[in-house]
Each structure stands twice: as structure tokens, then as C-alpha cells.
Design goal:
Blueprint: H1 4-21, H2 23-26, H3 31-48, H4 56-89, H5 92-101, H6 107-121, H7 127-142, H8 146-164, H9 172-179, H10 192-206, H11 228-247, H12 253-274, H13 284-289, H14 293-312, H15 314-326, H16 328-338, H17 344-354, H18 360-372, H19 382-390, H20 397-401, H21 404-422
């Protein structure tokens, strides 16, 4: 850890992550710097390894351990993202957007409804897709009112992150904890009430500040494409397969997801062979190509960068300092604040790499704090970053920062509820 090359590796990781945080300024996709940083870190480890008696076999074992973890998550996420892309292609989310826009709600009602839908949709879809769909609703009906757009976007980001925190499918962090075997699938739902609290407390405080009035009316006609409802049903069956494969058969969840993906491919083939017009172009392999590969490759860079730092002993030092020194509760709460600045993926992977001895309720706590802590800043989650692009100039870092104390209040209230109902003696 004190070797100059080890210190250089830490600097490389920090520099690559600064490049990720400043993505909005230089418009370079976040996967590039972390992938490059991961390569540099492991090259430096290989150079100094002989000085510490580390063989090539030990290096390869460490790298393939990371590859094993990455491969399972990659296949799971690839199947999930392909389903989301297929639903987008079949106009499921666009139709939802139009129906919300045409519902005739006033601005305050729309503020509540978009938040509630984000909280309900995020556990099934991901928080990024949820934020984009509902951000489009807000822009469609309130694009002439920056105050309404800004406060609604803050609400959507918070709702999407809170909704994803109690579902193994709702966020990458929950998925990582589930696949690592730290928490059983159904145990995650103990976080429902804390997550609901995290959503409702800021909503209640912000509600009186939502401008009154009627938004723009729209008469856009849009309908889901052929086969959309069956694909929704198939997606739910795929989730059920992933759970049952793991719970009943003892097989990794990604195998259930990939089996479900094959069924989606058969469905697309049937629609293509029996349809006409746009159905003739519905090819799942093209949908796979349109998956969020930047996120998947970013995930690769994070896992191998953090894995390199763990190999150098940095995570053992951090674990001893934080979990052994501060205690798990204080550390897990603090990590939520860290995830407001640093993406929750490296935060959670670092915790999993440390693998501190914690009870299930503590693993639930860090899952919730890493997932919801990112709501406190607009750059703290994919949902916030995406909405800054959708509502450029109206929803900004500073307009979100104005509500950070309120969001922090919701975060603290959620922790209190979790300690009260889920932790022994809480």
C-alpha cells in the first residue's frame, strides 16, 4: 500500500473518477476513463507483484475472480436492459407518457402522480428509464414553467431512487447485494416502508411550493405496438424465472434472465414473421445492440479498478478504519452521503469487496443508503444526470441543491424507520 506504484494506482482511480464526475463538461462517456484506469492499475500491480512474491497464477486468479462477478451481473443486466429497450420500441413508455399528459391533471396533481408512478415503476424498470419517461411528461406539460419543471424533476429523482431501493431489480446496487448472496430476494422488501418514507417526506415538504395552475394540454394520439402487452407479461415471467431459479433450483439468477431473453427473441421472431410494416424490423439482436453499453462497460471498469485497489490492500485498510473503528451503522449511513458525490456502483462494490461481518439488517441498511443517498445531489444518480439533460437549463445542479436539506431529511427519516422496524432493539 505504501509502494509508490500502489499510490500511483490510487491516483489513477481518483483521476478516472473525476473524469466520470465531469462528464457533462467534456462529453466523454463515463466508461472510457474507468476502463483505461482499470488497465493501468492492473499493469502496475503486475509490475510490482514479483517484489512481494506474488506469482502470475495468483494474479490471474484475482483477475478471474473479478471476471466471474462481472460476467454474472453483465448477463443479468443485458437481459434486463434488452427487455426495457424492447418495451420502448413497442411504445409502452411513450404511451404511458401520453396518457399521463392527457389525464387533465393540474400542476400539483401532476407533481404527485409523476412521483408516485416513478416510485412504482422504478422497482421493475431501472431508475434511469423511469426518470426519462416521467421527465418527458413534465417537460411536455410544463416546459414553459421552469419552477414547476425543477421541483418536479427533484421529486422524480428522489422517487425513482427510493423505489429502486427495496427491489432486487430496482437498482444495480440491490442487484449486486442479492447476487453476492448477502440478502435473500424476499428480504429486500423489508425496505419498503423505509423507502416509502424516503419518498413521502420530501414530497410532503415540497408540495406547498409547487406552482398552482393547469399545464399545457396535448391531443397527441399514440398506441402501443402489436405484442407490447405480451412482452410486458413475458418480462414479469422472466423476473419470476430469475427468482425461482435462485430460490428453488439454486441456479444463478442470470440464467433465468437469459432464458427469458431467449423467449423474447422467439416472440420477436413470431411478430416479425406474422406481421407487416414496423413489425418486419423488430429484431431483438438490434435491441441488444441499443442496450446501455456505456453503463455495462463502466461497470467493468469499476469492478476491475476497485478489485485492483482491494488486491493492493486499500479496501482492507478502509474496512478496518470504518467498519471496525466507526461501527457498521455509522459507516453505512456515511456511505449514503458519499454516494451523493460518488456513483453508488463503486461504493457498493467496495463494500462487497471489503465483505465486513454484518448482519442482514446492516446489509439492508447499506443497500438503502447507497441507493437513496444519491438523491441528495443531481449528480449522485443516473436519474439526476439524465434529467439534467432532458430539462436542460430548467433542472440544474443548483436547482436541485436548493432542496438538498429536504432530501437529506427524507434520507434520515428512512434510516430511522429502518432502525425502528428492521434492526433488533431499534
Amino acid at each position: 500500500m505504501a509502494h509508490p506504484a500502489a499510490i500511483f494506482c490510487l491516483i489513477v482511480f481518483v483521476a478516472s473518477y473525476i473524469a466520470v464526475l465531469t462528464e457533462e463538461q467534456h462529453h466523454m462517456r463515463k466508461s472510457k476513463p474507468v476502463m483505461f484506469g482499470a488497465g493501468i492499475i492492473w499493469v502496475m500491480i503486475a509490475i510490482i507483484a514479483p517484489d512481494y512474491g506474488v506469482s502470475h497464477e495468483q494474479l490471474r486468479a484475482a483477475i478471474f475472480h473479478g471476471l466471474d462477478e462481472y460476467a454474472g451481473l453483465l448477463l443479468f443486466l443485458l437481459a434486463a436492459m434488452t427487455y426495457i429497450s424492447a418495451l420502448q420500441e413497442r411504445r409502452v413508455f411513450a404511451t404511458l407518457r401520453v396518457k399521463l399528459v392527457q389525464a387533465g391533471l393540474n400542476t400539483r396533481q401532476l407533481f404527485i402522480v409523476t412521483g408516485v408512478v416513478a416510485f412504482i415503476l422504478s422497482p421493475i424498470a431501472d431508475n434511469l428509464t423511469t426518470a426519462l419517461v416521467l421527465g418527458a411528461v413534465v417537460m411536455a406539460v410544463g416546459g414553459n414553467d421552469p419552477k414547476f419543471v425543477a421541483i418536479s424533476c427533484v421529486n422524480i429523482v428522489n422517487a425513482a431512487n427510493a423505489g429502486g431501493a427495496f427491489s432486487p431489480f430496482g437498482d444495480i446496487t440491490t442487484l449486486m447485494v442479492w447476487q453476492a448472496g448477502k440478502v435473500d430476494f424476499f428480504t429486500f422488501f423489508q425496505l419498503f416502508l423505509p423507502s416509502l418514507t424516503c419518498f413521502l417526506v420530501p414530497l410532503a415538504v415540497m408540495y406547498p411550493f409547487v406552482p398552482k395552475g393547469m399545464p399545457w394540454s396535448m391531443k397527441e394520439a399514440l398506441h402501443m405496438k402489436r405484442g407490447a402487452r405480451f412482452i410486458i407479461f413475458l418480462g414479469l415471467c422472466t423476473i419470476a424465472m430469475a427468482v425461482s431459479f435462485e430460490q428453488v433450483l439454486g441456479l444463478p439468477p442470470f440464467l433465468g434472465m437469459m432464458t427469458g431473453l431467449s423467449l423474447l427473441m422467439f416472440t420477436a421472431y413470431f411478430l416479425r414473421m406474422t406481421g407487416k410494416g414496423v413489425d418486419k424490423d423488430f429484431d431483438i439482436l438490434e435491441t441488444v445492440a441499443s442496450a446501455e453499453w456505456d453503463t455495462l462497460l463502466f461497470f467493468f471498469g469499476v469492478i476491475f479498478s476497485v478489485g485492483g485497489l482491494a488486491f493492493l490492500g486499500y479496501l482492507e485498510f478502509a474496512s478496518t478504519t470504518m467498519y471496525d473503528g466507526w461501527g457498521p451503522t455509522t459507516t453505512n449511513i456515511a456511505l449514503g452521503f458519499v454516494s451523493a458525490v460518488v456513483d453508488n456502483i463503486p461504493v457498493m462494490f467496495a463494500v462487497l469487496s471489503m465483505s465486513p461481518e454484518m448482519s442482514v439488517d446492516q446489509w439492508l441498511l447499506v443497500t438503502m443508503t447507497a441507493g437513496t443517498g444519491g438523491s441528495m445531489l443531481s449528480i449522485g444518480s443516473a436519474a439526476g444526470v439524465a434529467l439534467m439533460g432532458v430539462a436542460r437549463g430548467q433542472y440544474t445542479f443548483l436547482s436541485h441543491l436548493k432542496w438538498t436539506p429536504v432530501l437529506a431529511l427524507g434520507y434520515i427519516a428512512a434510516i430511522a424507520v429502518h432502525i425502528w422496524i428492521n434492526m433488533p432493539g431499534g
